[in-house]
Amino acid sequence: QVQLVESGGGLVQPGGSLRLSCAASGSSFNFYIMGWYRQAPGKQRESVTYITSSGITNYADSVKGRFAISRDNAKKTVYLQMNSLKPEDTAVYYCNFRTMGVNYWGQGTQVTASS
Q1: For residue 22, what are the CA distances in angstroms to 8, 34, 56, 61, 84?
Q2: Which residues have C-beta within 8 Å of that of residue 28, sequence separation ≥ 6?
Q3: Residues 43-85: tens digit of each pLDDT
Q4: Nearest Cα residue to 84 out of 66, 99, 103
Q5: Backbone angles phi, psi at 15, to 5 degrees
Q6: Which of 5, 70, 97, 110 sits CB 3.0–4.6 Å from 104 for a disulfide?
């Protein structure tokens, strides 16, 4: 059974940085797409960024130039470097891995940018 385990969330002042990680266990295959979603209180879950197995990346306009996604296929891990965090980045962040038409989700990690 595939499980995704996230780490790296926390409280940071506006302008600060955090790095999230998400590692998969229980899989013998690689994932085509690895990405991150977030959900703020009272809002729908939204896509933040993703990276394909060939390294193609996509970012939401709201995070372009501030966030960077990367992946380590050997470790089945995806990373999200978040810089210049804003209060509006505050949300629960979920990693999402997709392959062969199946979606896998992490449990979520809280990111709070507040003074």
Answers
A1: 9, 9, 18, 22, 21
A2: none
A3: 999 999 999 999 999 999 999 999 999 999 999 999 999 999 9
A4: 66
A5: 95, -10
A6: 97
Q: List CB contacts of 71: < 8 A, sequence separation 6 or more.
A: 34, 51, 77, 78, 79
CB 82 within 8 A of CB 17: yes
Q: Could you give the CA distance from residue 42 to residue 45 in angstroms, rounded to a whole number?
A: 10
Burial of 38 (0-12, 13-18, 19+ CB in 10 A): buried
Beta strands in the chain (DSSP E): 3-7, 10-12, 18-25, 33-39, 46-52, 57-59, 67-72, 77-82, 91-99, 102-105, 109-113
- Return the bridge partners of 70, or none: 79
Rounded CA separation 115/112 (Å): 10
C-alpha span between 69 and 29 (Å, rounded): 21
- What digits encode the pLDDT tens for the residues 13-34? 999 999 999 999 888 778 889 9
Q: 15: phi > 0 → left, psi -120 to 50 → alpha, else beta; which?
A: left
